[in-house]
Amino acid sequence: MLQKLLVLSRYLLILPIIGSLLLMIGVVVLGLIVVLKQEWALFTQGDLSSKDAKTLTLTVIETIDMFLVGAICYIVAVGIYKLFISQDEAQLLKRIRIESLADLEVKIIGVVVVAMAVGFLGKATDAVDYTAVLQGGIGIAVVICALCLFLRLSSSPK
Length: 158
Known about the structure:
Layout: H1 2-9, H2 14-45, H3 50-85, H4 101-125, H5 130-154
């Protein structure tokens, strides 16, 4: 009885899968709208100064960060689906190889590290106070090192 309940309750994880997919769609569409609005505003002004180019560059970097968050949402959705819902090897989602929770962690941490680096780059290009940039960079570096250490210590020897 309890085993049957546990087997059937795994289908409740469809809700976070749908939620992650909705988040991914929302973030990606919002990022696309931000880029299109920024480009439209720049091109309708008529003149492209170096300040406008810097603004566009900053917008693109921040939007790439949004797209990476969307990628994290997608990876989470696929990972939960592959780990708990589908046990079928002949499924369509072969590009993302997730066979264990550790595989899902590695993929998410990899994207988080890239998103943190892109986010820092966006802040650094817009910075006025270089001491704050240095402090932020050190903080991000410490977090990235901690994540790498976590991956190193939690990985099983193969």
